[in-house]
Design a protein that fits this description.
By secondary structure, the protein is an alpha+beta fold. It is built from one helix and ten strands.
Amino acid sequence: MHEMGRNHITPRIGLVVLALMTLLVLSSMAGQAAGYSPGCGQIPIVYGIPPWGFHTGPPIGATGSFARGHGEINLEAHTVSGIICQEDHFRNKPTRAITMTVEHHLLYQSHYAVMWGFPGNIMKIRVRVRASNDPKCEVGTVGHATLFASYNGVRSDSVQFFFPAACRDQDHLYHGTQVNNQVPPL
């Protein structure tokens, strides 16, 4: 009699464990999606030589904008990943900020690019807004970014964002000696 009771309990325990594991996986995925917040507060400036990364200068004061990001890249497989943030500060208005992830496929990369009259490395990536407090720029919006890193001792790096109409206020070009960009060579 004791054996028979155990056989009925074992499948029930298995179902309960399966249901709990499913719930745990789903809540973990929801936690990851909810883990993004708008802006650069959680995204550090990466110094040294990361696989790819940039910052457009130190965070600014009452007005202006800045951005930073970093991630992984596999040039042989043409894949890329990472996180990027951008903040726009206005006098007497709330800050508009977005956080983006980098879509998996590397759109373009070259070690033989010329921008601003200087040679350098360039990469073009697709980004997706994951968190936003800009009412015009919704989560899920897809845009593009072009990162250019000059070489041969010249400091003329740039980062440029391109977004569709609703998110166009987030289109920015950062260029100059304050921009520090690491784009890997071939």
